[in-house]
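Input sequence (250 aa), recorded before submission:
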Amino acid sequence: MDDAQLLRYSRHILLNELGVEGQEKLLASHALIVGAGGLGSPAALYLGSAGVGRITVVDHDQVDETNLQRQIAHNLARVGSPKAESVREAIAAINPDPVVTPITQRADAALLDTLVAQADVVLDCTDNFETRHAINRACVKHGRPLVSGAAIRMDGQLSVYDTREAANPCYACVFPEDSGVEETRCATMGVFAPLVGIVGTLQATEALKLLAGLGSRMAGQLLMIDGRDLAFTRIGLPANPACPVCGHRH
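Predicted structure, token format:
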């Protein structure tokens, strides 16, 4: 690190858990964020401000005015711009260090297979089960930890799926593809603006700990957030030996 970086990251360096070594790991790391909306916005901003060296942001959508209630990486001046490009500009305005690569196409299986293999950690900030399962399959295949968040109405969820440890479940162990879960989106159901900030910030928290070598105690755990009562409930998640995605590990 140069003198400017020592000053910029001084509050991290003062932490016993991070120090110079941990900050240098962040600067040398690569995070993949899939989704640049309500969850991806705070997650990307915190990864960028914390000094993650490379950040790839994938989102095929464009900024519109209905996003601005909660998607804090975007602004009125960038309405109509690709969300991934908007996030790149937002990070650059805070910290020039990260190399941010915007990918303005849909995150399909082929793209994810390429991008996940290049990343050290993956953040699922999407809002549909098809993409979530595609991300999970790529993470299991390439042995990458997956930090998954979700928020709708006034309820949120957070978990880390790290299948590098055989005892940990993958996303499909907990939410099987054939479970018949009804898709719900904020465009029809609504979402409380600060809730996506809470979940996205927690995603950044877990991703930074993983990148800095601190590990995550959320692996094999599901944190459920009730925004009405500000209640947090944490439950254990067992792996499914018969899981069609990761069952071969058992």
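Checked by second reader. Residues 3-155+193-217 form a domain with the Rossmann fold fold (CATH 3.40.50.720).
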